[in-house]
Amino acid sequence: MRVLKFGGSSLATVVRFAEVADIVASQIGTEPVGLVLSAPQGVTNTLVELTDLAFLGSDYLPLLQQWRQRLAQLIEDATLRTSADQLHAVRELAAAQDERLTEKLQGIRLLGYCPDHIKAQILGMGEQFSVALMTALLKGKQLKTVLLDSVALVKSQGDYLNAVADIAASEQSFAAALSKQQAQVYVMAGFVSSNVQGELCLLGRNGSDYSAAIVAAAVKASVCEIWTDVDGVYSADPRQVKNAKLISHLSYDEAMELSYFGAKVLHPKTIGPLARFQIPCYIKNTLNPSAPGSCIDQHSSGDSLVKGISSLEHLALITVSGPGLKGVVGMASRVFAAMAREQVSVSLITQSSSEFSISFCVAQSDLKVAQQALAAEFELELANKLLRPLHIQSDMAIVSLVGDGMRQHRGVAAKFFASLAQARVNVVAIAQDSSERSISAVVEQKACQDAVKVCHENFFSHIPSIDVFLVGCGVVGGELLAQFQRQQAFLQQRNVRLTVYGIANSKALLLDPKGIDLAHWQAQMQDAKAQFSVAQLSQFVTEQHLTNPVLIDCSSAEPVAGLYVDFLKAGFHVVTPNKKANTASLDYYRQLRQVAQQHRRRFLYETTVGAGLPVIDTLQGLFNAGDELLAFEGILSGSLSYIFGLLEQGVSLSQVTQKARDLGFTEPDPRDDLSGMDVARKLLIMARESGLMLDLADVEVEGVLPAGFAAGTAVPDFMAQLPQLDALFADKVAAAKANGQVLRYIAEIRDGRCKVAIKALDLDHPLAKVKDGENALAIHTRYYQPIPFVLRGYGAGAAVTAAGVFSDVMRTLSWQQEM
Ligand code: ADP
Ligand code: ASP
Ligand code: MG
Fold it and tell me: What b-and-e string marks burial along 432-470, b requiring 16 or more CB atoms within 10 Å of the CB?
């Protein structure tokens, strides 16, 4: 016999029932089909709810009416697909169920009590309806169909709601039944069975998979197929992880571990009977019957390292600890005996090697009972302080990696925990099974999905993601977005997924869970309403389960720089060309670095000095290797480099300033450049990077213009007054020239002091030839002397600055890729 089981997801409507009947018909060959069915989707849940409402004394009649209508609709929809005769039997069954259900619910409500055996009878009704309807449809297809009574044939032991199969007894009952009636299709209800007293017992929620395995084992089926709504077993729940991979083959052990730790596609009890008789199992898709599905059998598949990632949610972690546990024989067994007595199932256990504590997970819904059972069991020990009060951590989840191949490879656990750290998930407890086939971590429920996602990324898809939020979309920000758009193909080639989820300016914040269309962001910004704040962005990141958020600040705003610490704390990397944070107070400067380290996030600001030139990274590289700064001289402003180059050629100060402004080389108010403050900030960043813990006030600043010149005037007035200084500057240039020198605006660090000022340089000075907007940095260190280490190139302009920011953004991935 071939056993085929169809789950509730395959039985949601009559169209689905009919598709199942078609699949069954197409499978009829030399062997008969044993067809095991669940209840129509959602019906068992409705029955559970009805029972609960009755038990609580609440009004269950509206829901009862819904249940009636659902069955009536299914029967009604089936009229076109089979004869009235066949449907008559289904109607009678539905009427009989209605009567029994109504009566039982009344009883429960009256007594305020619902014994388990009554609950089992109610919850099992959905399956019995399914088999009646399917039998009618199959008979309508002229297939020789026999309905077998699973309650009578599937034998079990244990409690009414969660019984365990008695395979030997089931084998006998099936042998007897099958010898009496020959058929092409034997239809059977899943989920239900009976104990030795012949009372109905359920096989546990979602237990129809287990029913199929029991039937397969009892009749020694050639195959057991579980038909559901996905193509097979995936590397993670495809509902949670979009690019989960289909697994073509799993060993029984792998399937067992995955399902035990939460892969809902298969009930964990299913594998036992199949493995015992080495019956191959296939997971198939009712919606895509031609797909090959996943095969589960006895063969180990050592090929891939990790097969799948699963998660088990809604758990509580209980810790029993205290000196009374140490060296006392039988304490652990008392803990678990107490759980077993109350039928509380335990899903993960860890014990400290000092035997001082035992921690284990139970379903959150069992927590109260578990606590009471432990309190009763250890009353004496608790009273005498031999045990500490029970420690309870609620709302926990287990994330597990499963794979036969894991034991032959080192470093899986390291990569697992590094992934959890990367997802900023705190690991509460750890367990590994001794066969090294699975490794599990207990984490907070709210972090579970992120944990699964990042582990899947690192073990399977290898497509790391960068989740971008940009604040400041002016010249540099706009250019950066254009570069992101242009580089999409290149990023794809490098297997990186970069998505811009948010863009903000001082007026509004645009957020899009699908990622902003970079071709049309300007238009969308017009309609954006939200306001930029750490809370807004954090909430978005949490809701969308983004695991590598990067805040890019392309504004030059001080208030935004003041939020970096909060962003880092909220899990964002921060990348910026904005100099304000690094030149704020030393307290803030230190706090930024501490917080970034604590939260394992990057704070990157390569473009704050020398734009695209690799200044910061180079300095850090030198100093990390033990080098030390002796002195520094540099031209750090592209606009001043341009202005002083033209002054040297004899152009007047007012003309050159006008020209630089027209070309967009200066700020809208050229005094922002001419004041020297921007250069002073860059120099301070260099100094701090080199270990000089100075403040902005410690930098001696000599502006380009005489102090107080045209102070307080508007830009046009200032530009109009500027020719007054032409003669002065012409004289300065001529005097320098007479000495064989040129004027440059120089930032320097010497003897631990910082200064920015106009300097006359000899023509053979390394910075004398630097003009036309170029930057140059001459770095004198212990290793680089007497000839300094020189960096030179364009140090301003939207394109190079944006490219530098882009490069920093890519560096947020580097430590993930090292894994
Ligand atoms: P049925 O009603 O057929 O029993 P279930 O809802 O019980 O279906 O199980 C199928 C669901 O299991 C899928 O829709 C999927 O969301 C979920 N699932 C969880 N983990 C996995 C996994 N690793 N592979 C495939 N499906 C999974
Ligand atoms: N209908 C039952 C449940 O929902 C059994 C099953 O679908 O597997 O629990
Ligand atoms: Mg299921």
Answer: beeebbbbbbbbbbebbbbbbbbbbbbbbbeebbbbbbb
As a whole number of angstroms, the distance between CA 817 and CA 422 comes to: 11
Q: How many residues does the chain have?
A: 819
Stated pTM of the model: 0.78
Mutational test site, ligand 2, from 191, 202, 227, max ligand atoms within 8 Å of CB: 191
Say yes or no to pLDDT of 303 above 70.
no
* Ligand 3 geometric centre to CA of 189 (Å): 14
794 Cβ neighbours under 8 A, 6+ residues apart: 611, 612, 613, 638, 773, 774, 775, 800
Query: CA dist 755 to 222, 429, 697, 703, 777, Å?
Result: 86, 55, 11, 11, 14
Q: Are 613 and 736 in contact (CB under 8 A)?
A: no
Q: What is the pLDDT of residues 237-283, one digit of tens each?
A: 999 998 899 999 999 999 999 999 999 999 999 999 999 999 999 99
DSSP string for 361-420: EEEGGGHHHHHHHHHHHTHHHHHTTSSPPPEEEEEEEEEEEE-GGGGG-SSHHHHHHHHH
CA-based radius of gyration for the chain:
37
CB 714 within 8 A of CB 725: no
Both tokens of residue 345?
């199932």
State what percent of residues in the chain have pLDDT above 70.
99
> Which entry of 307, 415, 682, 759 is annotated as an active-site residue?
682
Q: Which ligand is nearest to the CA of 456?
A: 1
Task: Give the residues across from 155 on adjacent strands.
Answer: 194
Token pair recorded at residue 589? 């400067």
Lowest mean pLDDT segment, chosen from 345-349, 355-359, 675-679, 731-735: 355-359
Determine the angle formed by the axes of helices 638-648 and 653-662, rounding to 10 degrees.
140
In the predicted structure, residue 817 carries a pLDDT above the cut 60: no
Mean pLDDT of 381-406: 93
Lining ligand 2 with CB less than 6 A are 7-8, 38-39, 44, 126, 190-191, 205-208
**φ and ψ of 275, to 5 deg:** -65, -40
Report the share of the chain in percent with pLDDT over 90. Answer: 79
Residues 6+ away with beta carbon under 8 Å from 174:
153, 215, 218, 219
Rounded CA-CA distance 814/819 in Å is 9
Rounded Cα distance between 365 and 259, Å, is 20
pLDDT band for position 541 (50/70/90)?
very high
Q: Of the ligands numbered here, which is closest to the C-alpha atom of 10?
A: 1
Active site annotation includes 415: no
CA atoms within 13 Å, Cβ hemisphere of 613:
21
685 by DSSP, 3-state: which?
Answer: helix
Whether 607 contacts 805, CB under 8 Å: yes
Residue 548 to residue 499: CA distance in whole angstroms: 10
Q: Do 440 and 396 contact (CB within 8 A), yes or no?
A: no
Q: How far apart are CA 491 and CA 736, in angstroms?
A: 51
- What does the pLDDT average to over 316-326? 89
Nearest CA to ligand 2 atom 8: 206
Pocket, ligand 1, Cβ cutoff 6 A: 7-10, 38, 206, 228-230, 233-234, 236-239, 263-265, 308
Q: In sequence order, what DSSP letters do the residues of 627-660 get, joined into one string? A: --EEEEEEE--HHHHHHHHHHHTT--HHHHHHHH
Reading the block at residue 404, the tokens are 């036969």
Which of 45, 128, 208, 211 maximizes ligand 2 atoms within 8 Å of its Cβ, making it the mutation to test the pocket? 208
Give the pLDDT score at 818. 45
The whole-number average pLDDT for the span 647-665 is 92
> CA-CA distance, 8 to 120, in Å (whole number)?
18
Preceding peptide of 268 cis, ω within 30°: no
Q: HSE-up of 743 (CA within 13 Å, CB side)?
A: 23
